[in-house]
Amino acid sequence: MFSPGEVWNPVNVEIQEKAQWKWKSYLDKGIIESKSGKVFAEYIPYSVDRQNWGIYLHKNEIVKDAVILAKLMKDKNIARAIVAAYVSLVFFHELAHHVIEDLRAPHFKYNEEDESLCEYTAFTLTEAMLKRSPLELGNFGEPNTRQKTAVLVGGISENHFLIGYPLPGYAFKGFMDIIGEVANRVRIVPFFNVKSLDAKKVLSIIYYWRDEAYKPVVPSWVNESEYVSSLSRNLAVGFDDLWSNVESVYSRVSIVS
To answer: Which of 61, 87, 95, 131 lies 20 to 30 angstroms, CA to CA, from 255?
Structure first.
């Protein structure tokens, strides 16, 4: 799945508009920024800044773009799916930067080809997440409140479930805040049962909307077994720091304005 040359290919879909920006990443003083004039997200490597390292999602820019795209969808179920998938793609893209750093540590060096691998990882993992239907909002907040902080992701069997979003085993209120704000602006209920939806179609809509600067492809430098091993360790929420010399990356995820 992660062998060199592997490509995540979208299906043919038609959308009314395209985003008026192109996803482009830069290395600025050691910080990997994903932006289109303004920053959408960034990853600060721990090898560059041990105090402030981590994943930063910029809420305002993500919300504005996700709202525009969701409003183009006549089917409200697809709009809900797009909102959930959008945040997942941004998060997994930045997580992949961390996975790559772990592979190269302690001598981490950014390569622009990393962006294609991060996109491939993000689309592949998000598609797998969406296929673990149903994706439903769950009550996992503080007792006696309406706060929602996680979703139920079913799909193992009738009586066995995965809980968390966008990664089973992980729930972050910041993600719910972004999704909730987008849902309020678009006037849809966040999350849904996705059994009847085509995950590939949902992701393809986002793919064509973003006018990809970096194609989701595994670069030639990737050693599949090494990358999959590093990715697997970092997907083991709660145990990922056992194989690392830094704290869990999941404790280093922040939402900023």
So the answer is: 131
Q: Which residues contact 37 (CB under 8 A, 6 or more apart)?
A: 21
First to last CA, the chain: 35
- pLDDT tens digit string along 142-166? 444 445 555 655 556 667 777 778 8
Distance CA 45, CA 31 (A): 7
Contact call for residues 257 and 37 (beta carbons, < 8 A): no
CA dihedral 239→234→101→41, nearest 10 degrees, is -120
Instruction: Find out whether the peptide bond into 106 is cis, omega within 30 degrees of 0.
Output: yes
Alpha carbons 150 and 164: distance in angstroms, whole number: 5
Q: What is the pTM of this model?
A: 0.90
Could you read off the pLDDT of 7-41 as tens digits, one per residue? 999 999 988 788 876 666 656 655 666 555 567 88
Report d(CA 32, CA 25) in Å as an integer: 7
Exposed (0-12), middle (13-18) or buried (19+): which is 133, by Cβ within 10 Å? middle
Q: Does residue 205 contact residue 199 with C-beta atoms inside 8 Å?
A: no
Q: Please give the Cα distance from 124 to 195 (Å, whole number).
A: 18
Residues 6 or more apart whose Cβ sits within 8 Å of residue 98: 43, 45, 55, 234, 249
68: Cα within 13 Å, side-chain hemisphere: 15
DSSP string, 121-162: HHHHHHHHHHHS--EEEE--SSTTS----EEEEEEEETTEEE
Cα 142 to its chain centre, rounded Å, is 25
